[in-house]
Known about the structure:
Blueprint lengths: L20 E3 L8 E6 H7 L1 E6 L3 E8 L2 E5 L15 E5 L2 E5 L6 E3 L4 E7 L9 E8 L3 E7 L2 E5 L15 H8 L10
Parallel strand pairs: 1-11
Antiparallel strand pairs: 2-12, 3-4, 4-5, 5-11, 6-7, 7-8, 8-9, 9-10, 11-12
Protein name: Rieske domain-containing protein
GO molecular function: 2 iron, 2 sulfur cluster binding; metal ion binding
Keywords: Acetylation, Iron, Iron-sulfur, Metal-binding, Phosphoprotein, Repeat
Amino acid sequence: MSSEEETSENSSSSFTLPPSSSSSASSPPPASHFIGKKEDIVKAGRVTKIVNGCRDILVLYHQGKFHAMDPRCYPATLITFMLCQHQEFNGRLCIVCPWHKYKITLAEGEGLYQAVEDPSAKPLTIHWRSKGVKQRIHKVTEVNENVYVTLNTSQEAIESDVYRTERYSTDLHKPQPKPKAKK
Protein backbone atom coordinates (compact mmCIF):
# COMPACT_ATOMS: atom_id res chain seq x y z
CA MET A 1 0.00 0.00 0.00
CA SER A 2 1.23 3.49 -0.73
CA SER A 3 1.69 6.12 1.92
CA GLU A 4 -1.72 7.73 1.57
CA GLU A 5 -4.71 5.37 1.92
CA GLU A 6 -7.08 6.44 4.68
CA THR A 7 -9.79 9.04 5.14
CA SER A 8 -11.86 10.65 7.90
CA GLU A 9 -13.88 13.63 8.97
CA ASN A 10 -13.35 15.99 11.85
CA SER A 11 -12.14 15.94 15.43
CA SER A 12 -11.20 17.81 18.55
CA SER A 13 -12.82 20.99 19.71
CA SER A 14 -9.92 23.28 18.82
CA PHE A 15 -9.59 21.97 15.27
CA THR A 16 -12.91 21.81 13.51
CA LEU A 17 -13.09 20.37 10.03
CA PRO A 18 -16.22 20.31 7.92
CA PRO A 19 -17.67 16.88 7.19
CA SER A 20 -16.47 14.91 4.20
CA SER A 21 -17.10 16.85 1.06
CA SER A 22 -17.50 16.23 -2.61
CA SER A 23 -15.86 18.67 -4.94
CA SER A 24 -15.91 19.39 -8.62
CA ALA A 25 -12.66 21.36 -8.26
CA SER A 26 -9.82 20.17 -10.42
CA SER A 27 -7.28 20.01 -7.60
CA PRO A 28 -7.28 18.59 -4.07
CA PRO A 29 -7.09 20.79 -0.97
CA PRO A 30 -3.63 22.01 0.08
CA ALA A 31 -1.84 19.65 2.50
CA SER A 32 -4.15 16.76 1.58
CA HIS A 33 -2.97 13.23 0.89
CA PHE A 34 -4.18 10.98 -1.91
CA ILE A 35 -5.87 7.90 -0.49
CA GLY A 36 -7.17 6.17 -3.57
CA LYS A 37 -9.82 6.02 -6.24
CA LYS A 38 -13.34 6.48 -4.87
CA GLU A 39 -14.57 3.37 -6.67
CA ASP A 40 -11.88 1.18 -5.07
CA ILE A 41 -12.51 2.47 -1.55
CA VAL A 42 -16.29 2.16 -1.90
CA LYS A 43 -15.85 -1.44 -3.08
CA ALA A 44 -13.48 -2.31 -0.19
CA GLY A 45 -15.55 -0.45 2.42
CA ARG A 46 -12.41 0.57 4.31
CA VAL A 47 -8.69 0.98 3.74
CA THR A 48 -5.67 1.84 5.82
CA LYS A 49 -2.94 4.10 4.57
CA ILE A 50 0.26 5.60 5.86
CA VAL A 51 0.39 9.34 5.24
CA ASN A 52 3.38 11.65 5.68
CA GLY A 53 5.44 8.47 5.88
CA CYS A 54 4.53 8.00 9.53
CA ARG A 55 0.82 8.26 10.36
CA ASP A 56 -1.58 5.36 9.89
CA ILE A 57 -5.08 6.40 8.86
CA LEU A 58 -8.23 4.31 8.54
CA VAL A 59 -10.69 5.42 5.85
CA LEU A 60 -14.21 4.02 5.98
CA TYR A 61 -17.07 4.27 3.52
CA HIS A 62 -20.53 3.86 5.04
CA GLN A 63 -23.98 4.96 3.89
CA GLY A 64 -22.62 7.19 1.14
CA LYS A 65 -20.03 8.99 3.28
CA PHE A 66 -16.30 8.71 3.86
CA HIS A 67 -14.81 8.88 7.36
CA ALA A 68 -11.14 8.96 8.40
CA MET A 69 -9.64 8.33 11.81
CA ASP A 70 -6.62 6.96 13.61
CA PRO A 71 -6.93 3.19 13.17
CA ARG A 72 -5.95 1.87 16.63
CA CYS A 73 -8.33 1.73 19.57
CA TYR A 74 -7.22 4.41 22.03
CA PRO A 75 -6.37 2.17 25.01
CA ALA A 76 -4.73 -0.58 22.96
CA THR A 77 -1.51 -1.15 21.13
CA LEU A 78 -2.40 -3.78 18.57
CA ILE A 79 -6.19 -3.56 18.33
CA THR A 80 -7.14 -2.00 15.03
CA PHE A 81 -10.53 -0.86 13.79
CA MET A 82 -9.90 -2.45 10.39
CA LEU A 83 -12.33 -5.33 11.06
CA CYS A 84 -14.83 -3.44 13.24
CA GLN A 85 -18.52 -3.21 12.56
CA HIS A 86 -20.50 0.01 12.24
CA GLN A 87 -23.44 0.48 14.58
CA GLU A 88 -25.70 3.32 15.54
CA PHE A 89 -25.96 4.30 19.21
CA ASN A 90 -28.30 7.03 20.36
CA GLY A 91 -28.67 8.18 16.75
CA ARG A 92 -24.90 8.45 16.19
CA LEU A 93 -22.92 6.28 13.77
CA CYS A 94 -20.08 4.51 15.60
CA ILE A 95 -17.37 1.96 15.10
CA VAL A 96 -17.11 -0.65 17.87
CA CYS A 97 -13.74 -1.98 19.06
CA PRO A 98 -13.76 -5.79 18.68
CA TRP A 99 -11.72 -6.22 21.87
CA HIS A 100 -12.92 -3.56 24.33
CA LYS A 101 -16.40 -3.04 22.82
CA TYR A 102 -15.80 0.73 23.04
CA LYS A 103 -18.11 2.77 20.85
CA ILE A 104 -16.40 5.60 18.94
CA THR A 105 -18.40 8.08 16.87
CA LEU A 106 -17.25 8.38 13.27
CA ALA A 107 -18.05 12.10 13.05
CA GLU A 108 -16.24 13.36 16.19
CA GLY A 109 -14.13 10.48 17.54
CA GLU A 110 -16.08 10.63 20.81
CA GLY A 111 -16.21 7.62 23.11
CA LEU A 112 -19.78 6.73 24.14
CA TYR A 113 -20.96 4.68 27.11
CA GLN A 114 -24.23 3.89 28.88
CA ALA A 115 -24.67 5.39 32.33
CA VAL A 116 -27.28 4.63 34.96
CA GLU A 117 -28.88 7.85 36.19
CA ASP A 118 -29.80 6.68 39.70
CA PRO A 119 -28.85 3.10 40.64
CA SER A 120 -31.34 3.09 43.54
CA ALA A 121 -34.31 4.03 41.35
CA LYS A 122 -36.41 1.25 39.85
CA PRO A 123 -36.69 0.74 36.97
CA LEU A 124 -33.16 1.80 36.09
CA THR A 125 -32.89 4.76 33.75
CA ILE A 126 -30.00 4.40 31.32
CA HIS A 127 -28.61 7.23 29.16
CA TRP A 128 -25.84 7.44 26.58
CA ARG A 129 -22.97 9.66 27.73
CA SER A 130 -19.75 10.92 26.20
CA LYS A 131 -16.25 10.16 27.48
CA GLY A 132 -14.98 13.00 25.30
CA VAL A 133 -12.94 12.78 22.11
CA LYS A 134 -10.78 9.63 22.17
CA GLN A 135 -9.88 9.07 18.48
CA ARG A 136 -8.38 11.66 16.16
CA ILE A 137 -10.67 12.25 13.18
CA HIS A 138 -9.40 13.59 9.84
CA LYS A 139 -11.12 15.38 6.93
CA VAL A 140 -11.97 13.46 3.75
CA THR A 141 -12.44 15.19 0.40
CA GLU A 142 -13.46 13.80 -2.99
CA VAL A 143 -12.06 15.47 -6.11
CA ASN A 144 -12.67 14.05 -9.60
CA GLU A 145 -13.46 10.54 -8.27
CA ASN A 146 -10.29 10.55 -6.11
CA VAL A 147 -10.32 10.51 -2.30
CA TYR A 148 -7.99 12.70 -0.25
CA VAL A 149 -7.46 13.11 3.48
CA THR A 150 -6.31 16.21 5.31
CA LEU A 151 -4.76 15.39 8.67
CA ASN A 152 -6.17 16.93 11.81
CA THR A 153 -3.11 18.78 13.10
CA SER A 154 -4.68 20.16 16.26
CA GLN A 155 -2.22 20.45 19.13
CA GLU A 156 -4.88 19.22 21.54
CA ALA A 157 -3.83 15.81 22.86
CA ILE A 158 -6.18 12.97 21.99
CA GLU A 159 -5.75 9.50 23.49
CA SER A 160 -5.35 7.76 20.12
CA ASP A 161 -2.24 9.92 19.47
CA VAL A 162 -0.24 7.73 21.84
CA TYR A 163 -0.40 4.84 19.36
CA ARG A 164 0.67 6.83 16.30
CA THR A 165 3.81 8.48 17.68
CA GLU A 166 7.32 7.76 16.45
CA ARG A 167 8.26 6.43 19.89
CA TYR A 168 5.34 3.99 19.84
CA SER A 169 6.20 2.81 16.33
CA THR A 170 9.87 2.41 17.23
CA ASP A 171 9.12 0.54 20.47
CA LEU A 172 6.56 -1.68 18.73
CA HIS A 173 9.08 -2.89 16.17
CA LYS A 174 12.07 -3.06 18.52
CA PRO A 175 13.32 -6.60 19.18
CA GLN A 176 12.31 -7.63 22.67
CA PRO A 177 14.86 -9.27 24.97
CA LYS A 178 14.40 -12.99 25.39
CA PRO A 179 13.37 -14.09 28.89
CA LYS A 180 16.11 -15.75 30.88
CA ALA A 181 15.65 -19.44 31.58
CA LYS A 182 15.01 -20.28 35.22
CA LYS A 183 17.54 -22.56 36.86
